[in-house]
Specification:
By secondary structure, the chain is mainly alpha-helical. It has helices at 48-60, 64-76, 93-105, 109-121, 129-141, 145-157, 165-176, 181-191, 196-210; strands spanning 79-80, 85-86. The chain has two domains: 47-128, Serine Threonine Protein Phosphatase 5, Tetratricopeptide repeat (Alpha Horseshoe), CATH 1.25.40; 143-215, no CATH class. It has a two-stranded antiparallel sheet.
Length: 215
């Protein structure tokens, strides 16, 4: 089965941007003699390095979204800071893991998914199926369809958790309901091998999750 590695909703193509024009005062103003006016103050034009430094500051103050974005950028060597799209950043899986871990610990579902996949594939860390399962389960519980898909795969394979086809189908069905095509395909393949009892259990588990219960 193919396993999707990463996905990010915040990344967008680079674009031109304008710094905001700051206006002083409001309403009517007395006429000013141009000769008496103070020299215009020009704002410093920020560089991509400046924006990257700002993202670091936000992450260091505990901003989970900024921490996730830093993890993504260090993992891929590029990514969206929230203002501009960074390119040509030296890849660093250790830093990616560090920032994903911080964001995931605060409940960021995308960071939890990405962290889980780092452990699943052994990227920047020693491969650890049990740790991968823990983080993917957290992301899946928040409705992340790719995490739900991968959790279903792990239950089907018995990777990091005891093999359970009913639970595999439950998670694959939940991901498929969100339009995940790989989940749909894998669900049909596994469902065809289930007993009626296993199928009923899987459907019950999926319905229970939809009601807000932990499965």
């Amino acid at each position: 089965m193919n396993i999707i590695l990463t996905r990010v909703s915040s990344a967008v193509p680079s674009f031109a941007f304008l710094l905001p024009l700051i206006l002083g005062g409001c309403g009517e103003r007395a006429a000013v003699n141009p000769a008496d006016a103070a020299p215009a103050v020009h704002e410093k034009e920020l560089t991509s390095e400046d924006y990257f430094a700002q993202l670091h500051k936000e992450a260091e103050t505990g901003n989970a979204e900024a921490q996730f974005k830093l993890g993504w950028i260090y993992m891929h060597g590029e990514g969206y800071t929230g203002v501009i799209f960074m390119r040509d950043v030296p890849k660093d899986t250790d830093k990616a893991h560090e920032w994903y871990q911080k964001a995931a610990a605060q409940g960021n579902a995308e960071a939890q998914y990405n962290l889980g996949m780092l452990y699943r594939l052994g990227l920047g860390v020693k491969a650890d199926a049990k740790n991968a399962f823990v983080w993917l389960q957290k992301a899946a519980a928040q409705g992340n369809d790719i995490a739900q898909y991968n959790l279903g795969v792990m239950y089907a394979e018995g990777a990091g958790v005891k093999r359970n086809l009913s639970r595999a189908c439950a998670w694959l069905a939940l991901a498929a309901a969100q339009g995940n095509e790989k989940a749909k395909k894998n669900y049909l393949e596994i469902d065809a091998k289930l007993t009626e009892e296993q199928r009923a259990e899987g459907q019950q588990l999926a319905a229970s999750w939809k009601k807000g219960n932990i499965i």
